Amino acid sequence: MNSIEYLQAGEQELYPIFSEIDSLVKQNLRGVIDAFRHHRVGVHHFSGVTGYGHDDIGRETLDKVFAEIMGAEAAAVRIQFVSGTHAIACALFGTLRPGDEMLSVVGPPYDTLEEVIGLREEGQGSLKEFGISYRELPLTETGTINWQGLESAVTEKTRLALIQRSCGYSWRASLAISEIEKIVKIVKQKNSETVCFVDNCYGEFIEDREPIAVGADLVAGSLIKNPGGTIVMAGGYVAGRADLVEAATCRLTAPGIGSSGGATFEQNRLLFQGLFLAPQMVGEAMKGNHLTAYVFDKLGYAVNPLPFEKRRDVIQGIKLGSPEKLIAFCRAIQQYSPVGSYLDPVPGPMPGYDSQLVMAGGTFIDGSTSEFSADGPLREPYVVFCQGGTHWTHVAIALEAAIKAVGSSRDILQHP
């Protein structure tokens, strides 16, 4: 079969799943619209203020809308968060104090959190340098949560349990909401004072509930991923218990200022509109992931998740097995990106990462992965992580080139 035939077969077999995703999009969009209606969002909320950002009714209303969608007491949606990592770091520094312990319950965290925690590099003000200890519960040999070990891992000293929803750059299944619910239940049974904090990046609107609805105390994520709907220019969010949200914003701004500061620089309309578009964008990305998994599974590559498995985030992993194929794949995706199609991705260093990365990111917002993108670290087993997709038909077009670029799992590339 050629690339067109693989894609056509995938589209036909995946049609029932695509229909299920459309139903989920409708349900999540209804929740967004209900929150907009409840808080009477109008054009007067699109104007912003300057300077300190005090009394910005658009920002204040957006916080309420976002909190309702997340099922949270409070939320802070801010363009001053420069990334999801920044929002997560503010949540961690806001919650933890010297002498506290943080426990990562899903193995090692995403690469960009290693320096925040203090696992590598020194002298930058990591949690470790502030006297906050860190432990992690390894995954099982099959890459699943060590449920039995979790019960004994939580102690009286454990102030915060870090739950990373997405697989990141690891070859494991991302977490379903039901698994997050189970983690929270076990943690709270062992220590009711432990804060259950979810790194929610790439997971928003994937299911019909968010982690706060199943007992998590705090979540954080990026606005140039799922909840920004591809059009938000920058920012991140925290949501959850009101005291924890305020503590996180006190790290973003300053104690005494917290969530009351932060000018929105006329970005309120985009923030509201991106949130409205987000469920649809996530649904299209999920369809694209199913199609990507289907095609490359047929070509003999290991894929995570499998083609017909329910999605748990907007990331699809493909184990390509060689640096040449990883680079070739990313170059093919870049050639069919709406922005920078003429560019040639090459491996290079990236702030916050320990390995060189190769990245296809022809997106309208720099650093966003909401349009179809692909990247991966140049380390074994050379996995490419496909992310996003504003419409699955764009994914299908780009995959035609990717299939031709890397061939089957038996093909060997010398010089892409």
UniProtKB/TrEMBL annotation:
- Please spell out the taxonomic lineage of the organism that makes this protein: Bacteria, Bacillati, Cyanobacteriota, Cyanophyceae, Oscillatoriophycideae
Q: Say which species the protein is native to.
A: Trichodesmium erythraeum (strain IMS101)
Instruction: Fetch the Pfam families from UniProt.
Output: Met_gamma_lyase
**Which Gene3D superfamilies does the entry link to?**
Methioning gamme-lyase, C-terminal domain, Type I PLP-dependent aspartate aminotransferase-like (Major domain)
Q: What name does the UniProt record give this protein?
A: Aluminium resistance
